Amino acid sequence: MRIILAAALVAAPLAAQTGRPSEAVNVFIGTGGEGHTYPGATAPFGMVQLSPDTDTGCTIRDCYGHAAGYRYDDPTIQGFSHTHFSGAGHSDLGDVLVMPVAGDRVALDPGDAKVPGSGYRSRFSHARETASPGYYAVTLDDAGVRAELTAGTRVGVHRYAFAAGRAAHLVIDLRSSLYNYPGKILWSGLHLRADGTLTGFRETRGWAPGRKLFFAMRFSSPLTDHAFVDREEKVPYKGFAAPGRGSDAVAEKLGRQLEAQLDFGRLTKPLEVRVALSGVDENGAVANLEAEPGDFDAIRVATRGAWDRALGAVDIDAPPAMRTNLYTALYHTLLAPSVWSDADGRWRGPDDQVRVATGYTVRSTFSLWDTFRAEHPLLTLVQPAQRTCDVVSSLVASREASPYGILPVWQFAGRETWTMIGYHAVPVIADAYLKGIRCFDAPRALDAMVASASYASYGGLGEYMKRGYVPIDKEPEAASKTVEYAYDDWTIARMARAMGRTDVAAQFDKRAGYWRNSFDAKSGFLRARLANGAYRTPFDPTAINYGSDYTEGNAWQYSWFVPQDQGALFRLLGGDAKTVAKLDAMFDFDNSKLDYSHAEDIAGLIGQYIHGNEPSHHVAYLYNYAGAPWRTQERLTQIVASQYKPTPDGLSGNDDLGQMSAWLFFTGLGFYPVAPGSNEYVIGRPFVSRAVMTLPNGRRFTVAADGLSEANRYVSQVTLNGKPLARSFIRHDEIMAGGELRFVMGAVPNKGWATAKAARPYSISGY
Amino acid sequence: MRIILAAALVAAPLAAQTGRPSEAVNVFIGTGGEGHTYPGATAPFGMVQLSPDTDTGCTIRDCYGHAAGYRYDDPTIQGFSHTHFSGAGHSDLGDVLVMPVAGDRVALDPGDAKVPGSGYRSRFSHARETASPGYYAVTLDDAGVRAELTAGTRVGVHRYAFAAGRAAHLVIDLRSSLYNYPGKILWSGLHLRADGTLTGFRETRGWAPGRKLFFAMRFSSPLTDHAFVDREEKVPYKGFAAPGRGSDAVAEKLGRQLEAQLDFGRLTKPLEVRVALSGVDENGAVANLEAEPGDFDAIRVATRGAWDRALGAVDIDAPPAMRTNLYTALYHTLLAPSVWSDADGRWRGPDDQVRVATGYTVRSTFSLWDTFRAEHPLLTLVQPAQRTCDVVSSLVASREASPYGILPVWQFAGRETWTMIGYHAVPVIADAYLKGIRCFDAPRALDAMVASASYASYGGLGEYMKRGYVPIDKEPEAASKTVEYAYDDWTIARMARAMGRTDVAAQFDKRAGYWRNSFDAKSGFLRARLANGAYRTPFDPTAINYGSDYTEGNAWQYSWFVPQDQGALFRLLGGDAKTVAKLDAMFDFDNSKLDYSHAEDIAGLIGQYIHGNEPSHHVAYLYNYAGAPWRTQERLTQIVASQYKPTPDGLSGNDDLGQMSAWLFFTGLGFYPVAPGSNEYVIGRPFVSRAVMTLPNGRRFTVAADGLSEANRYVSQVTLNGKPLARSFIRHDEIMAGGELRFVMGAVPNKGWATAKAARPYSISGY
After folding, report:
1. Under the phi-then-psi rule, with left for phi > 0, alpha for psi from -120 to 50, and beta for the rest, what region is A297?
2. Is the CB of A210 less than 8 angstroms away from the CB of B251?
3. pLDDT band at A12 (very low <50, low <70, confident <90, very high)
C-alpha cells in the first residue's frame, strides 16, 4: 500500500506560491527581548554570519543582552562583524569587525553611544534598516554611509555607498568581540599581501579557550593608504620594529590589540568588500574567498535562492502572523550547526590539529543540550539526509580528535566549551540512525557514543555508572544529570539493538532505568541524592540556582524528564489523574512570591512551566501520555499565544541555535518529537490551516486543519491518508512515506480521542 | 694537471686518529664570560638543543648573561629545556623546561637559587658534571637525581636516575623561558593522550612575535598520576571547567601559565623521557618522535657518531689547547642554521602558514649579519653541498612565504625578528652559487636577492636607492647600512653576471660603489651623512651608542667595511703606508678613557679593534691588501692569544651562532674569507702544525706548517702543492681540487712575501 502511494506522492514542483518563502521571514524576531538572535546576513548553515553589532564594549554581565551583537533597542551600530550565534544563552564571536568611516578624521575607538561623533560608531534608525534572509541594509547616519551586507557559505560581502565627495575609509577592529573582557584576545595578526588581499587572524580565549579564526579580505577599489595599529599599552618587550613607518607600506602587524585603518580616497561607486573566513589558516581563507566568486549582487541572489529552496521545504498556509512566525522559526533552525571546514575539506579540531574531511562537510556550533530535542529531529524532515550525516560525521570526527575522546557537548569553531550537561550528541546520532539515515559510519558512531557515556571523569559519570545515579555531594546538578544520562543511554540501547549489538543494548537498557534512582516517589519530584542514598535537604521544588540540584531549572521542570519511559514515571506519580493534576499544578503555579531575576535564561514563565528554557519544552505534550490530549491542545494554545510574536521581542527566551524555533515549527504543524530516538512525534494541535512538506526523499507530506480558527483550537478528529487516526502520535515512517495528516478542528475538546493506553505515545513500560 | 691530481687526491678513509674528534671538543667553552654558548646535548644542526638552564627568572636586562640558559658560575640548575641559541647576543627559547623532583613534596616554582629547597631547582657541582657533543650529565644534589641528556635531530632524550625508594616526579614548566618577561607567553597547552603520550605547545611573543612550538613526550615508565595546573592569576573569565578533578584523569589544559606535575612512583630503573619538537603541530611532534626511535643509549651512540663524522671533516694536529679550541670552534659552527621542518617536510613559515618542503630540509636560526662572514663560507668546505643548498632553499622559501616578500634578516623558528641590519642572506646565496653549489633554484634565489635589495621600506633602502647612501636624518645607523648594502649589492652583481643576467649585474655593480658616498676622505672615516649631503656632526669616531651612525660599533670598526673594493678604500686613505698606519692606530688605540659598559656585545677590545663583535672580524686580514701580510700575521697571533681559551670564559664575545668560532677555525688553518662571494680566502698564518680537510667532494686538502711554535709565528714561505705561492690569498677552487698548502714558519717576518699588487687579495679596482 505504501509503495503504491509512493509513486503518486513523489513531488512535482509546487505550484507558484504567493511570494518567495524568504519574504515571509522576519529576521528581526528575537533581536529584542530574550531571543538573542541577529538580523544580519547568512547563508543556510553558513560559516559567516555577517551582522551589525550595536554594542560590544560591555563587561561579562552586561554582555548577556548582546550575546548576538545586536539589540533592537540600541541607537547606534558599532560595526559589522562576521560571526554570531543565533540565540545562544552564553556567547562569544563577533569576529573581524568592519566599520565604514567617511571624511578626513578617522576615529579608531568606537566611542560612546551616548555621545555622537565620539568614535567610529554611528547612529542608525530602523526606518532606514531592512533585512531578509541573506541580506541586511542600514543607513549609518553619522557616517553618511548606506551599508549593505550579504553572505555566501564561507564569504561575507559588504557594500558601502559613501556620500559623494567624502573620503572613504574602513576601520577593522580586531579588538572587538562579543563577551569581550580584558585579556580575551590572546594574539592577532594583519597581513597586507602584495596582491592587495588583507589577511589576518585572531586567537581568543573565554568560552572556547584557544579559538583560532582566520580571514581574507578583498576590496573592489584599491587601497590608497593603510595603517596597522597596535593599541596595546605597556608591552614590556616588543622585539624589533618591522619595516614600514609613516606612509611607508606596512605588510604585517602582530599583537593583542590590533586595528587597521584602510583608506580608499573619494570613490565614485560603492565600495564592495569580500571577506572569507577559515578555521585553518590565512591561506585557507584566501582559498575560501576564491571558491565563492561573485560580487555583492551575485552572492546576494545566490543566497536568496538558497534560502528560498531551504525554506521552500514547507509550504505554509496560516494566518499572517503565524505564517511569519513559522517561516522565521524555520529560518532560525537552518542556521546551525554551521559549516566549519574549509572549501578544500581542511578543518581544525578540538585538539587544535588540522585534518581533512572527505565525503562530508564538517560542521560546528553544537548547542546539543538544546538542539537534540527538536532542532536535529526537524532537520531530518526538512533537509537532505546528507545534512544530518554531515552533523553525525562531524560529531564522530570531533570525538576522534578530542583530547578527551568523547563527543562534543557544546562546541563551536571546532572547540569544546563544556557548557550544559549530558552527552546529547548521542540522541542526535541515534535519532538519525533509527530513522534510517545511514550515510555515516555507524560502528564508529556507536563507539563514540559508548565512549562518551563511559568517560568517568565527565560530569559524575563514574559515580553514575557505579551507583545508578549522580550523587549531589560528588557533583553539582546531580538530579538533572542523572535523568539526562538515563535518556541518552536509552538512545544508545535503541541504536545498538538496531545494529545487532545486543551486548551494548543490554548494558544501556539497564542504565536507561537509572532515572528511577533519583526520583522521590514520596514527594513526587525528581530529587538529588547524596552518596549515602538520602535525598538532599532542604528541598524546595521552586528553587533555581547555579550549581544546585538541577541545571537551569528546578524540580518542577526536571521531574518530567523521562522521555524514554513516561508511562513508568506516571505510574510513580500515581496514575493518569494525579499526573494531569500535577501537570496542571505546574502550569497554574502562582509565581507571585518568587524572583528568578538572578538566573539567566529563566524567561517565559507560565507558572513553573518555563518556555524560555529547554527543560520544559516537551512538558505540554505529556498530557497525551496520561490520556488527556485535549489538555495538551489547551496548553499549546496558551504557550504559542503567550511566547511567540512576529516582533523583535517575539521570542520568550534564547532561541538556542534553533531549538525555541524548532519547537514552534513542529508545534505549528501539529506534532513534536518528545522522545528523539523513538521515531514518534506526539500530536498536539496544528496552528496552520495547511502545510505541505517536501521531504528529503522527494515525497510530500501534508498537514491540513479543517475549520482552524482562534475559537476552533481543539482537535475533534484526525485522519492519516483518509483513515481515522485513533492514537495521539504519528511515526516517522508514516511521514516519510508521504501523505496527508488531516485535522478537523473544533471549539470544544474531544475528550474521547486517543485516551486508550494503546493510543498513547511510546513508552517502554507502556508497550 | 688538476685532473690528474684529482684522482690521487680522492679521499681514502683516514688512518685511525688518536681518539674520536668529538672527544677533542670542550662544550663548556663559552658558557662563562661573554660566549653565550650552552653545554647541553644536540645533534649537528639539530632542532633540539637540550640543555640545562641555570637561571631564567630574570628581567630583560639581567637576561643577557643567560641568553643560552646556562652560566658556568651559577650554583643551581632550574631545569632542562629543549631549545637554545649558541652564542646569540639577544635571546629567546628555553622551551619546555623539564625538571626531575624526588620525594613526597613537589614544588611547582623554581624557588630562590640562594635558598636551597625553596623550589624545584637543585644545586649542582661541576665536579659531578660532564658533557661532550650530544651528551650532558650532572648530579642534581638537592633532588638526589643523576640527570643525563642526549639528542637526535628532532628528539631530545632525558635519563633520570632517582635515589632508591624516593618517589619520582617530573615538573614540566611551560612558564619558563629565556628572555622571559610578563606577558611573553601568549598561550600554551598540555594534552595527555590515551596512549600516554604528553603533547603540548606554546605560543610566545618577544624577539619573534607569535612564535609557535609544539612538543610530544613519552616516558619509559607509565604515569601513576598527573596534574595540569594553570598558575595564571586574575583571569576575568575562564569559561567552563573541563572534565577531571583531583585524582581524575585530566586530558587537557590550556592557559598562559601552565605546569604539569607527572608522577611515576618509586622506580627500580632510571626514567627515560623522549621528547620531540615540531614547529607545525602536536601531531607533527608525535611523528617526529616516531621518526627517531631508540632509547637513550641508542640515540646517544647515533649522535656521537654523527658528531664524529661531522667533526672528522678535519683532522687537526696542533698543540692541545689549540686543538681543543679548534674542534670546539668547529663544533660551534655545526649547530646552526638548525633544522626547522618536520620529518615529513612540513614547516611553518614567517607568515605562520604551514607548507611542505620537498627535496630539502628547511632550516632556521639565521643570524645572518654575523654568519655571512665566515660561518656560511666554512660550511661550504666542511659539510656536504646539500647542507648549503638546504640553507639557500630555506632562505628562498622563507622569502616566498614572507609577508614582506624579502629574505630573512635574523630569523628563528621560521619567524623574522628584524634584528641587525643588511640583507646578508644575499652574500650567503651568492657565495654558494659562485662556488659552484647549484642544488637550489638559482633564478628564484636571484629574484629573492633583488627583491630584498629593493624593498624600499626596509632600513632606509628607498633612500639608499634614491641617493646612493642612507641619510642619517631619515634612518638610524645609516653609515653602517650604506656600506653593508653596497657589499651585499656587489655579491648580487657577481652572481647575476655568472648567471648571464647582465642587466641585474650592471644595476648592482653600480650600487656596489655606493660605499664611497658615505666615506669622508678628509677625516679618513666612514661617516653618516644627512639628506642634504653634509656629514652629521658632532663626530666622534670612538662613540658607540644604539641608534647612532653605526651598528654596534663606531667609525673605527666600520671604516674598514668595503670587502668588495679594499684597494679603492686604501687609495682613499692615502695608500699602503697610511692604511697600515691607520690599521695600527686602530689596534694600538688607548682606550683607557673610554667606557663601553652600556653597550651589549662590545667585548674583546684590542684598542678600537673589537674582536667580540663582528664588524672587526675581517680587519686583521686587511694588512695583506696593503702589501704587509706579516702585519696580519702579527695581529692574528695577538688576537688568537688574547681572545680564545679552552675554558668556560674562553670566548671574548658572543659566539653568534658560530661566527666567532668560524673566525677561529679559518684563522687556525691559516686563511679567512674576507669577502664572501670573491671565492678567495686571505692567507693569515696557521696555528696548526697540520690539518687535513676531507672536502665535500671527497678530496683532501692539507694545511701544514713546518716549524710552527710560539716563537715561529711568522710565515716565511708558502707552497701550494709543492710550488711556491707568492700571493697572500688562495682560491676556493684550489682548495676544492685537493692538495697541500704548506707553510714554513719562522721567528721573523718575511716582509718580502706577497707584497706586490698582483699578489694581494681580490679588489675590484685592484684588478
Report:
1. alpha
2. no
3. very low
Cα–Cα distances in angstroms (integers) from residue B433 to residues A145, A668, B385, B698, in the given order: 57, 77, 11, 19
Q: With an 8 Å Cβ cutoff, is B241 touching chain A?
A: yes
SS3 state at A701? strand
Ramachandran angles phi, psi of B404, nearest 5°: -100, -10
A310: nearest Cα among A377, A389, A379 = A379
- Burial zone of B644 (CB within 10 Å; 0-12 exposed, 13-18 middle, 19+ buried): buried
According to the 3-state scheme, what is the secondary structure of B695-727? CCCCEEEEEEEECCCCCCCEEEEEEECCEECCC
CA distance A273 to A262: 12
Q: In this structure, which CATH number among 3.40.50.300, 2.60.120.380, 3.10.350.10, 2.70.98.10 belongs to the domain B36-307?
A: 2.70.98.10
Residue B311 near residue B239 (C-beta atoms within 8 A): no
Which amino acid appears at position B365 of this protein? T
Contact A205 B239 (CB under 8 A): yes
Give B456's contacts in chain A (Cβ within 8 Å): 248
Measuring CA to CA, which residue among B234, B108, B252, B227 is closest to residue B182?
B234
Per DSSP, the three-state class of A21 is helix
Beta bridge partners of B157: B150, B274
Scan residues 48-67 of A and list those with Cβ closer than 8 Å to B.
60
B247 at interface of A, judged by CB pairs closer than 8 A: no
CATH 3.30.2080.10 fits B1-30+565-767, yes or no: yes
The Cα-based distances of B686 to B165, B377, B667, B668 in angstroms read: 57, 18, 7, 5
Question: A765 pLDDT band (50/70/90 cuts)?
Answer: low
SS3 call for B89: coil
Minimal Cα distance from B256: which residue of A? Answer: A186
- CA–CA distance, B275 with B216 (Å, rounded to integer): 6
Nearest to A237 among B206, B242, B352 (CB): B206
Picking from B57, B48, B135, B138, the residue whose alpha carbon sits closest to that of residue B84 is B48
- A102 DSSP β-pair partners: A168
The Cα A284–Cα A587 span in angstroms is 52
- Residue B413 backbone class (left: φ over 0; alpha: ψ -120 to 50; beta: rest): left
Q: Which residues contact A131 (CB under 8 A, 6 or more apart)?
A: A27, A28, A39, A40, A41, A137
User: Over the stretch B590-629, which tens digit does the pLDDT of each residue have?
Assistant: 999 888 888 766 788 999 999 999 999 999 999 999 999 9
The residue ranges of every structural domain in chain A are 31-307
Q: What is the pTM of this model?
A: 0.94
Q: What is the residue whose three cell numbers read 628564484?
A: B444
- Please give the mean pLDDT across all residues of chain B: 94
Residue range B628-657: average pLDDT? 96
**Terminal C-alpha separation, chain A:** 26
Cross-chain Cβ contact A352/B208 below 8 Å: no
Q: Are strands B700-706 and B690-694 parallel, antiparallel or unpaired?
A: antiparallel
Q: What cell was used for B202?
A: 606554546
Residue A487 grid coordinates? 535518556
The DSSP H or E segment spanning A320 is helix A320-333
Residue A16 clears pLDDT 50, i.e. is over it: no
Residue A42: its H or E element: strand A41-42
Contacts of A216 in chain B (CB under 8 A): none
Residue from B188, B197, B201, B205 whose CB has the most chain A CBs within 10 Å, to mutate: B205
Mean pLDDT score, B465-475: 97
Candidates 3.30.1330.10, 3.30.830.10, 2.70.98.10, 3.40.50.920; correct CATH number of A31-307? 2.70.98.10
Span B278-337, pLDDT tens digits: 999 999 999 999 999 999 999 999 999 999 999 999 999 999 999 999 999 999 999 999
What's at A240, amino acid-wise? F
